Amino acid sequence: MASRTEAYPDNTPGSFFVDRSCIDCGTCYQFAPDTFADGGDHARVHAQPDGAAARLRASMALVACPVGSIGAEDKAAIAEASRAFPHPLSGNVFFCGYTSDKSFGAWSYLIRRPEGNVLVDSPRAAEPLMKNLEALGGVALLVLSHRDDVADHAAFHARFGCERIMHRADGMTGLERLVEGDAPIPLAEDLLLIPTPGHTAGSACLLYRDFLFTGDHLWWNPDMGRLSASKAYNWHSWEQQLDSLENLLAFPFTWVLPGHGSIHRAPGPEAMRSELEAAIRVLKGA
Length: 286
Hints:
globular; 7 helices; alpha+beta; Metallo-beta-lactamase, Chain A; Alpha-Beta Plaits
């Protein structure tokens, strides 16, 4: 629980604050940028929420925080916020909230499908989220993009009996399905698992319609105004990651939904391809 006595001094005065337990995962200022901002090595409140909708959004960021670094004297919207995840992003794709410190606040997503719902990476196994997932039809498949963002995967398997799938190269054991090789793997007519080794040996992206779930392979950097990836936070091979980014040029998508970094939507697949080509040129010079 956040402590007012440990709050950062650069918080704008008012009900909401961020304290020194913040790990700067970015969840709050990506989800509720009207209230929260990047303070350098921590998040901060740059403007107190004004109105019921803004208070709910800020309260949802509080609930989503992986380490409980956000506090608020005004708790009127907290109960509603705790029940507000999964939060719709577009169509039948949702942000799960309830990020986990086990994956440094990585985002996870739900795809609602008549053939069975898909969870992409694991959120925190919070009971309000579990109940809402049950109400939405449960989880049939849990796709784990790489070893960093598995969080509470075992709890979701125990609750829903979902099949967990991951690339064997990341060394996880005890899962229901481990895939191999570099060729894309169809999981269903509308689901394609694309191995993208580099960030880790077994990193993989999931393509669903025009949504690409990228784990820690690719994201949008709002400060640079472009797609990006990290050479500094690369645990396997930067050269291989660059090759994997180039391989994504073969696939049409308009959304990038990462575990870390900002979500991005391009006007269309061709625009996204151009943006990815531009990012690769910059990253090859890094």
